[in-house]
Design brief:
Helix 13 packs across helix 17 and helix 15 packs across helix 22. This protein is 74% helix and 0% strand. By secondary structure, it is an all-alpha fold.
């Protein structure tokens, strides 16, 4: 079939500039597509709506929580902490992406892989490593007799979450740099601009959407993080909410605080969208690779020192500390048997969540691409809003809803898996939509002309052509679910455990050998999916 774009005027109701000509915008989507797309949002939307109703019926004392000085202080502390982590993660991510993509730094592929690897290490594992390795009685002091400052509170939480969030900025910025047409950079250099000026005036403005997207992910991750701030004993919103919810009979103050955290997350999303929407950006497929900048003298040394420091702190030290704790435990006779129950729980729950999310992403993507309208746009946006909600608030909402209205499924595995899939559906939808946009809509029309219905066309034509995007989305949901902690703590069935729960519990009781064993297993499980998501595509680009 010809790949040429149609030169005819797009009929009414069709989009101009869509792939392979114009995408047919049918007047009405099949009812089952809408039913399937809306069903997955119910586990998030309905409980949150119930949370709102319960909050409005709360006592006056519970609502006074909003106006208390402690709450105001908590809001300021959380916003300041989130901004601090986001700025540091953005600086590291953008700098790393530019050095690896645009300079002749040695071992570029090695550094590129090393900068992405912190994705496989959960933030609470990084926090546990920092706590157990620093201080007068830390592992580093025991091995070297040189005590490091004890990293707890704000400094420790900041470092742990910076190391956990900068890969999002790095990966998105790297992808944008590979897609960027180098013509403007070459023109600027031809006019005598220095590499630093080209970076400041040409590259960074074009990277603005990518930087904004990465910074948004870093900010939302920081807002919703529970494990790292809890282990570091830093009073962020999530830690205070969990303490209020689990330590009191009256849980309405925790519900009110949860609504405040949701509001903060939505404000962050709106601010990023408003900022990004002020400019217009164009993306072209580069006709040739960009010219690599040669680093010399102190600049080359500084670049290598920067990369080595980030990779060592982000990957080398955590793996080394976990290995040291495991070795000490084995040498001391500590029981470090493989927690098979937690392994099975993590693999089973994450696999089921990934499968449900992949299946649920199909109708949403089909509606958004083939039946584009204001309704489908809002449907797609709601998926990302669900992703942005802090996990602990979603879990509290689901607990409150199931206790009151669905007691038989309270703390069941089915509810946990469905909530996983709903929270992380956006991660499956993004790659699936990217694959869907590359499918010529005339293939669907050809299938229908042969007498196949909408469902048969979807299953026999559309889904097979989307397979790469669906697999990528499923792997991303799997890795994310594998590391999830707060929702798991509140929603898991009795006797059900995961590696994340085991790590958090053991670290809280200072049982670092058991925590290290579970953490190393979790990291080992995550290596293969992360390789297929990040390292393998990067090698293809480099080749």
């Amino acid at each position: 079939m010809s790949s040429r774009r149609s030169t005819t005027t797009a009929p009414a109701g069709q989009r101009e500039g869509s792939p392979s000509g114009s995408t047919p915008q049918r007047t009405r989507a099949p009812w089952w597509l809408w039913a399937a797309a809306l069903a997955i949002l119910v586990p998030v939307v309905v409980p949150v709506a119930g949370l709102l109703l319960r909050a409005f019926g709360a006592s006056e004392a519970a609502w006074q929580t909003l106006t208390s000085w402690r709450t105001v202080e908590l809001v300021v502390r959380t916003l300041g902490f989130t901004a601090l982590v986001t700025v540091s993660a953005t600086v590291i991510g953008v700098a790393g992406a530019w050095v690896v993509s645009r300079t002749d730094v040695r071992l570029r592929r090695f550094w590129g892989v090393g900068l992405a690897l912190p994705l496989i290490i959960p933030s609470y594992v990084v926090a546990m490593v920092l706590i157990s390795a620093t201080g007068p009685r830390g592992l580093f002091a025991d091995l070297t007799a040189i005590p490091l400052p004890h990293l707890v509170g704000l400094p420790g939480a900041w470092l742990a979450l910076t190391l956990s969030t900068y890969p999002y900025v790095y990966l998105i910025s790297t992808a944008a740099l590979h897609r960027m047409d180098p013509t403007l950079e070459e023109a600027a250099r031809g006019l005598g601009a220095s590499p630093a000026k080209v970076l400041r005036t040409v590259v960074l403005p074009q990277l603005r959407p990518a930087i904004g997207a990465g910074a948004l992910l870093a900010a939302l991750y920081t807002l919703s993080d529970f494990g790292a701030v809890s282990l570091m004993r830093f009073d962020a919103f999530t830690r205070v909410i969990y303490a209020q919810y689990s330590g009191r009979l009256d849980r309405t103050p925790a519900i009110v605080l949860s609504l405040v955290l949701i509001a903060i997350a939505l404000v962050v999303i709106a601010a990023e969208h408003r900022t990004r929407g002020k400019g217009t950006y164009f993306s072209h497929r580069p006709v040739r690779p960009p010219r690599i900048i040669r680093l010399t003298g102190p600049v080359r040394g500084a670049a290598h020192a920067f990369l080595a420091t980030v990779v060592t702190i982000g990957v080398g030290i955590p793996i080394a500390v976990l290995g040291a704790w495991l070795a000490r435990g084995v040498a001391s006779g500590v029981d470090v048997a493989v927690p098979w129950g937690a392994v099975a729980g993590s693999l089973g729950g994450s696999s089921l969540a990934a499968a449900v999310a992949v299946v649920a992403s199909v109708p949403i993507v089909v509606l958004a691409v083939r039946y584009a309208s204001r309704s489908t746009t809002w449907l797609e946006r709601s998926v990302y809003v669900a992703f942005s909600l802090p996990h602990i608030t979603v879990a509290i909402a689901v607990v409150a809803f199931t206790v009151r209205y669905a007691r038989p499924v309270y703390q069941s595995l089915a509810v946990l898996v469905i909530v996983y899939a709903a929270m992380f559906l956006a991660q499956a939808t993004g790659p699936a939509k990217a694959s869907m946009l590359q499918i010529d809509p005339r293939l669907d029309d050809a299938s229908r002309s042969l007498g196949k219905g909408s469902l048969a066309t979807l299953m026999r034509v559309t889904v097979p052509l989307m397979s790469k995007g669906l697999i990528a989305g499923g792997l991303l949901v799997f890795v994310t679910t594998l590391k999830e902690l707060p929702a798991t703590l509140l929603l898991r069935p009795s006797g059900f455990s995961t590696l994340s729960v085991r790590i958090w519990s053991a670290a809280g009781e200072l049982l670092y050998t058991q925590a290290a064993a579970a953490a190393l297993i979790l990291i080992a499980i995550s290596v293969l999916p992360v390789y297929h998501l990040t390292i393998k595509p990067q090698r293809a680009v480099d080749a």
